[in-house]
Amino acid sequence: MAAPLKLRADARRSIERIRAAAVQVFRERGLSVPLEDVAAAARVSKATIFNRFGGRVGLIDAVIDDVVAAELVSVIEESRSVEGARGRVEVYVRAIRGLQYSLPAVNDVLLQEFPDSEPLMALCHAGDAFHGELVAEGHIAGILADGVTPGDFQALAMDNALALKHARVRPSRDDYDRRTGYILGGICAPSD
Using CA atoms, how far apart are residues 17 and 11, in angstroms rounded to an integer? Predict the structure, then answer.
C-alpha cells in the first residue's frame, strides 16, 4: 500500500519539475524548443513529458500562464490605462515590441505556432480584439494614418516575430527601439 503513495508523490514531484523546467526553457528560448531540452532540464525522459502532459501542446497549455500570458495581458491593460488614443497606441506598440525582444515565447504566440493550444489562441484573440479597439479609437481621434486596420497591427507584430525568430544577427536594443519609433511614425498621423 505504501508503494503507490510513494509513486504518486514521485509523480507529483516529476510533474512539478517538468512544469518548472518548461517555464524556464520556454521563457528563455521560445515554445518551439526541443522537448528533449525541457526533459533534460527537468531530469526526466521525453517520454515522461508525453505520459504526463500528452506532448508539447499539453505542456504549453499547462504552463502558458506562467510563460507569457501575464505579460501579454499586462501590456494590453497598461495600454488601456493610458490617457488619450495616441498615448495608448504608442505605449502598446513600444511594450509589445519590447516584450517580443525580451521574451522569445511571445513570438511563438503571435505567430500562432501552436493553433491546437486553446490558451495560446485565446491570447491571440484577446490581442486581435484589442487591436480593433486601438484602431477604432485611433481613427475617431484622428491619430492613426488613413487606412490603418487592426490587421496592420497584427501584421506588424507577426513580421517582427518572424524577423526576431529567424534573424542571423539580432539587432542591438538601441537599434531595435529606434526602429520602433519609425513604425510609430508610419502608423500615426503627425501630431499637431
Answer: 10
